């Protein structure tokens, strides 16, 4: 199970890339947004279950991978970026343009870590601590994206 957790947490080789694994992990999640939105259009229940499964898997895998990789929020763990991107997509339409906007905004909020993301990142242990700040960044990205699209 530990090996599976590490493979999931690092999204295979992505987390082991020498440059910007978090950005590449977020980019890898980008195609999920239009696909999940298509599921949302067909069944809200299936969509909600998919989001919960993705987030729960991210929390579990990140927590277990931390034990193996050592250190809080090891840079190789990128499943938290996937979870954050998916949360951003919850509030946005299922277009590629919205997915790209979510990516840009998510990366911004993930780096800046506005409240309460900064508290979660610094004070919460385990998988929830690794993923929680990204969920907040995803929520902010989705809200900001929604506002930007409304303005346009």
Describe the protein:
By secondary structure, the protein is mostly helical. The protein has one domain. The protein is built from eight helices and no strands. The chain has helices spanning 2-9, 21-29, 32-42, 44-69, 79-90, 96-112, 117-123, 126-151. Helix 5 packs parallel to helix 8. The longest helix has 26 residues, at 44-69. The mean pLDDT is 94.
How many angstroms separate the termini? 47 Å
The secondary-structure class comes to mainly alpha
Q: Give the helix level as a range of percent.
A: over 70%
Approximate shape: globular
Oligomer: single chain
Mean pLDDT: 94
The major pleated sheet works out as: none
**Number of helical regions:** 8
Q: Tell me the number of strands.
A: 0
> Uncertain regions: pLDDT < 50 for 5+ in a row?
none
Give the ordered list of helices and strands: HHHHHHHH
Radius of gyration: 15 Å
Record keyword descriptors for this entry:
8 helices, 76% helix, mainly alpha, 152 residues
Summarize the structure.
The chain is an all-alpha fold. The protein is built from eight helices and no strands. Helix 5 packs parallel to helix 8.
Task: Break the fold down into its secondary structure elements and pairings.
Blueprint: H1 2-9, H2 21-29, H3 32-42, H4 44-69, H5 79-90, H6 96-112, H7 117-123, H8 126-151
Helix pairs in contact: 1-4, 2-5, 3-4, 3-5, 4-5, 4-8, 5-6, 5-8, 6-8, 7-8
